[in-house]
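Ticket #4471: structure export looks truncated?
Reporter: QA, pipeline team
Priority: medium

Steps to reproduce: submit the single chain below to the structure queue and open the exported record.
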Amino acid sequence: MSSCNDSKKVNLNNKKVLKKELRPFFDSDGIDHYYLDFSDDDFMKIIRKDRNTEKELEFIALFVHHFPDSIPQENFEKILQKHNYKKSDLTIKQQKDIENVFSEKDSSPDSYASCAAEYRDIFIFKKKERTIGIAKICFKCGRFQITGSKLDTNGFGLWSEFDRLKKIVRQK
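Actual output as written to the record:
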């Protein structure tokens, strides 16, 4: 596993996002944000073990792999809480700002990750209390996973978007 701490953000080009009304990825009426404060050392202890427990394997899938790859039928928040992700208290304005970041784009990402993802931030999009979308973000290297959107999410991933998101949810 490579660390993101020393990775370089490689700018392939400096495309600008055009200012026009673009649709959000999810038709949601609420957004929950979960964050995991977990050290690299603690993670290395888990992945270096000869045999991992079922819970540890689930955590590895959640933290660095593409779990879930579809909207889970079971309560996804319970899975996050089981692995010590903490729910943020988001204001309506913060939720609207997050929705604006997770929307269609006229540009493509301007850089690519050079390390393994560490999905410490997970956004759950809801409609009538039901999960309709999940976005996992690694702010260190710019990797993301968006599940459940019916729109094309390929334009997502500009460093400016990650910076905006980080300012919204990590104000402290």
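Status: closed, not a bug. The export was complete when the record was re-opened. Leaving a note from the reviewer for reference: The helical segments are 40-47, 54-64, 76-82, 92-101, 159-169.
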